[in-house]
Design brief:
The protein is an alpha+beta fold. Helices cover 16% and strands 40% of the residues. The strands form 17 sheets. Strands 2, 31, 32, 57, 58 and 59 form a six-stranded antiparallel sheet that branches. A five-stranded antiparallel sheet has the order 1-36-35-34-33, with no helix packed on it. A five-stranded mixed sheet has the order 68-69-70-72-71. Strand 69 (907-915) and strand 70 (918-925) form a beta hairpin.
Length: 972
């Protein structure tokens, strides 16, 4: 029996994942005066004590020590990329250029600037403490004539363009006057518009509305009339009627036309749809000094405070549901979203209450008897509630919002049935566990034996898929017409897929099978022609929050929602590439996701541990925005370059380089992954993606480099970004081309000098040797001449005297005289040979052969032996050494002597052949030959000939063929 206790239109209470930034995180000061975003996506936080620039990777802070004229920063305006005007609370103007704050010189006086505006004519105007000025070509030109308004009223803190007028707000914090004024840009006259203090003036073109607010009232003026200089009040449209009940300090209109009402301790959002949202202490915004809000290009909400720093809400599409009707939601034990409607069911086991949630209403029902539901399942008009091993059915009565509960089926005690993962198909319930049990009409009609299975799923073709923990994947056909054979195996893929320890399973809109595992993340399989193919595999290395996947679900857009033990992820296909978005991780939420359920409106409901509930709506991040990766700074050993220009040139002493990079996106900036490749090195390849946004390079050699940097984002809408930054490291002077040429020329000169000195020394040595050789030759010639003149003449005299003696009678005297004559003749011949060999002018081969011919002819004629000599002629250019000349003469002389004395020959032939620098001298006789075996061991002739040949490296051959042939072969 169910008692319907009430019907309510109240909304779920939720808590949003706000993120705080304070000086502890790098912010220069916690009192935030304004927020600005430049064209590159960087956030500029204007504080009461300096300027902070946040690029998602780091804060860069500027104070008076860094060039600010005053620590209080009023406003800023971008004039070009990396160049912004800075207005501080003093009579000076700063400019921020590529990371440096400089003084902007102004000819003449500079007013205290409160607000910049770039009008539609492209010109810059400023609201100041002294009126309105045009900023033109570096000087300020006064705009307001101030003729009809007291001078003390010309201090303005806001300026807006309306038609050809400027709407100005009096700085009522610094004067006793209040009100709004119009400045005619043509006449330069101030026209009173509203004599009332307004802390917020907002133009809403969609509604032709000029909305003026203060804490006590809201006034609407006709925007078209205001553009014509007329203050025409108009009724407040219905959309803005809630503002009458809100005491506001500021109003902000975002790009979607939503109204943001700022109070000191809360923010109220009124979207065009009219569903009012409140951000306050109950939703996680626990702060009491809010002064304004800012919506950046990613549709991220930045909340400014006066003392509590910055508060960011990156994803207001992720809601942490903290209570139902102001009660704690930690007791929620079951959740189910109907994929065929926008209804979501929740069960609170603390107060035994069943909630039916629609987009606009929540219905609360108390259930009797009290049970603790572990799962809710809706199929058509049937509602099933599981409590352990028991299944209850409940009949819905939409008109009276009541539910009738009764026992439907109960498993036996000890039965291992996982009713928490029961699925419905028509009138049948399929319960996984130790096997799969089919229940209908309160009875179990069929059961399949199977190892323990956590989750099963039915695809669009009506096939049931199961992946047991032990591994494998099985596809069953459901035979509703044959209950006795309700499930029939169509195909068992167990043997063809890896052992993956499945814990969850889902089927996407393309009938691909997704399996979540205990250790290995998520697998995706595709079935083609009854064959299975592993198509995708994602782990923590690819961006999953955790590899232990408890639950899987697919939404209408074919996104796969992954519930892990550490959070919720979304896998989506963007531009042909799968992107993993850490939905809860991006919001600094880490918890177990037990169940994921998606209703028809594509909201995603999850049940976490301890009953916590997350609700994820369509992501509001602007798809038109793409973060821009950039080099924030380049540091060397002795220099720092902020936002350096491309093609920077560094010296060889600046080769230790640190690059700080960023890709300004603030959805989950700490999860942006960077990788790089440095072309110009031998090891040019992409690094592993890392969250580290600082790149260090040590001892780079000189040369030209190209640093390529890639950034991958944790948001599926953002494509991977890449830039290339080029820089050059110049070589030291000694390693330049002109230094190399100088060194090479010097080296060549030194080598040439060494070679010259070497050859000069060699020439000097040769000259010395030549002089010495000439002296030796001259001395030899002198000795030869003296021997010939003195010794020769004496021996000749002896010879003739002995010859006279031999003609005397007496045999004894005659015999002695003949011996003296022969000895003297031999001595004279030998002396002539010695003299001939000593003279260097006889060293040609022709002269040598001629002398050998002469000696041989004399010996053979004296012995009466016929001879024949064949020597070549005209070999005068071939010169011999003294040693070779002497050896050839003595060897040939000894050979002729042996022929005359021992051979008994009657004919002798002498030949000489010359070719290729080789001389062959042959002496042949027709004698009896030489018996080499009986040559007397005491004979020195042959030994002497052989020794002389060896001394000059000649070859001496003795041949006994028809006489004896002596052949001498030598190189000349």
């Amino acid at each position: 029996m169910i008692i319907c206790l009430g019907l309510s239109s109240q909304s779920l209470a939720q808590e949003y994942p706000f993120i705080h930034y304070t000086p502890k995180d790098g912010l220069i000061n916690s009192r935030i005066r304004n927020v600005y975003q430049d064209s590159k996506g960087r956030m500029f936080f204007l504080t009461a004590n300096g300027l902070s620039i946040y690029d998602g990777a780091r804060f860069n802070n500027y104070s008076t020590e860094d060039g600010l004229a005053n620590p209080v920063v009023n406003d800023m305006l971008e004039i070009s990329p990396d160049s912004l005007l800075l207005a501080t609370n003093t009579s000076a103007l700063n400019i921020w250029v590529r990371g440096k704050v400089k003084n902007f010189p102004i000819p003449g006086p500079c007013p205290v600037i409160n607000k910049f505006i770039r009008a539609t004519d492209g010109r810059i105007y400023v609201a100041t403490d002294n009126g309105v000025y045009q900023f033109d070509e570096g000087r300020f030109i006064k705009m307001d004539a101030d003729n009809s308004v007291k001078k003390r009223r010309s201090s303005f803190d806001d300026i807006q363009e309306i038609g050809h007028y400027f709407l100005l707000r009096v700085n009522f914090d610094m004067t006793h006057t209040t009100g709004l004024y119009l400045l005619d840009r043509i006449t330069k006259k101030l026209i009173p518009f509203a004599n009332e203090a307004f802390n917020s003036v907002t133009q809403i073109p969609e509604d032709n509305l000029l909305l003026c607010t203060n804490p006590d009232r809201v006034i609407a003026f006709n925007l078209t009339a205001a553009a014509s200089g007329i203050a025409q009040p108009m009724p407040l449209p219905a959309l803005y009627q809630p503002l009458r009940k809100i005491k506001m300090d500021a109003v902000f209109i975002d790009k979607k036309g939503s109204i943001w009402c700022v109070r000191r301790n809360s923010i109220v959002k009124i979207p065009r749809s009219g569903n009012v949202l409140t951000y306050d202490k109950t939703t996680g915004l626990d702060v009491n000094n809010i002064n304004n809000v800012f919506i950046d290009r990613e549709n991220i909400l930045w909340i400014q405070t006066d003392g509590s720093g910055l508060i960011k809400l990156a994803n207001n599409n992720v809601e942490i549901v903290t209570g139902l009707f102001s009660k704690s939601a930690t007791g929620i034990s079951a959740i189910h979203a109907n994929p065929k409607s926008d209804t979501t069911w929740l069960f609170d086991s603390e107060d035994f209450t069943l909630y039916c949630c629609t987009p606009r209403q929540i219905f609360r029902n108390s259930i009797m008897p009290r049970i603790k539901a572990s799962q809710i399942l809706q199929e058509g008009r049937s509602l099933y509630i599981m409590d352990g091993r028991t299944i209850y059915s409940a009949a819905l009565h939409p008109k009276v919002h009541s539910v009738s509960l009764k026992l439907y089926y109960q498993f036996e005690k000890g039965g291992a049935a996982n009713t928490n993962r029961t699925i419905a198909y028509g009138k049948y319930l399929f319960v996984p566990g130790s096997g799969i049990t089919v229940v209908t009409s309160g009875k179990a009609i069929f059961r399949v034996s199977l190892p323990y299975t956590d989750q099963i799923v039915i695809d669009k073709q009506g096939r049931l898929w199961a992946s047991p923990r032990d591994g494998g994947l099985i596809c069953y056909n459901i035979n509703a017409e044959n209950p006795s054979n309700m499930m029939e195996v169509q195909h068992d893929y167990t043997s063809t897929i890896p052992q993956i320890s499945a814990r969850s399973i889902a089927v996407d809109n393309k009938n691909r099978i997704w399996i979540g595992t205990r250790y290995q993340g998520v697998f995706c399989f595709e079935i083609k022609n009854n064959k299975i193919y592993r198509q995708l595999h994602f782990t923590t290395a690819d961006g999953l929050t955790d590899n232990f996947v408890f639950s899987l679900a697919c939404d209408a857009d074919d996104n796969i929602w992954v519930g892990t033990q550490s959070g919720l992820d979304k896998i989506s296909l963007e531009n042909g590439k799968y992107i993993i978005e850490g939905v809860t991780r991006n919001n600094n939420i880490f918890q177990l996701i037990q169940c994921i359920s998606v209703p028809k409106n594509n909201q995603v409901w999850t049940l976490g541990n301890s009953g916590s509930i997350l609700r994820v709506t369509n992501n509001p991040i602007s798809k038109g925005f793409q973060p821009q990766i950039q080099v924030s700074s380049l540091k060397t050993t002795d220099s720092l370059f902020h936002y350096p220009k491309d093609e920077l040139t560094l010296t060889h002493q600046q080769n230790n380089i640190t690059f700080e990079v960023a890709a300004p996106s603030f959805v989950d900036e700490k999860q942006i992954m960077f990788s790089y490749m440095l072309n110009g090195t031998a090891n040019a390849h992409w690094s592993m993606p890392s969250r580290e946004a600082t790149l260090n390079f040590i001892n780079l050699p000189h040369g030209k480099y190209e640093l390529r940097i890639k950034a991958s984002f944790p948001v599926s809408y953002y494509t991977q970004q890449e830039i290339a930054y080029r820089f050059t490291i110049t070589p030291p002077w000694w390693d330049t081309w002109w230094a190399r040429i100088l060194f090479a020329a010097s080296l060549i000169g030194m080598i040439a000098l060494i070679i010259r000195n070497y050859y000069l020394g060699k020439l000097r040595k040769q000259k010395v040797l030549l002089d010495r050789h000439r002296a030796v030759e001259e001395e030899r010639t002198r000795i030869a001449m003296e021997m010939h003149d003195d010794l020769g003449s004496g021996l000749t005299t002896i010879r003739y005297l002995a010859g006279g003696l031999s003609m005397q009678n007496g045999n004894s005297s005659k015999e002695k005289a003949e011996k003296i004559v022969n000895s003297a003749k031999t001595l004279v011949d030998n002396m002539n040979d010695i003299i001939w060999t000593m003279k260097s002018d006889n060293n040609t081969l022709t002269e040598t052969l001629a002398y050998i011919r002469k000696q041989a002819a004399e010996q053979l004629e004296t012995a009466g032996i016929e001879y024949h000599i064949e020597f070549p002629k005209d070999l005068d250019d071939i010169r011999l050494t003294n040693e070779l000349k002497r050896s050839l003469l003595l060897i040939s002389k000894e050979a002729i002597h042996n022929i005359v004395k021992h051979s008994g020959a009657t004919n002798v032939n002498l030949t000489a052949e010359f070719g290729n620098r080789q001389l062959r001298l042959g002496i042949n006789d027709n004698g009896k030959g030489i018996d080499m075996a009986h040559v007397s061991k005491f004979g020195n002739g042959m030994k002497s000939m052989q020794k002389r040949a060896e001394e000059v490296k000649a070859v001496l051959e003795v041949l006994n063929i028809k006489g004896t042939t002596i052949m001498i072969t030598t190189l000349v």
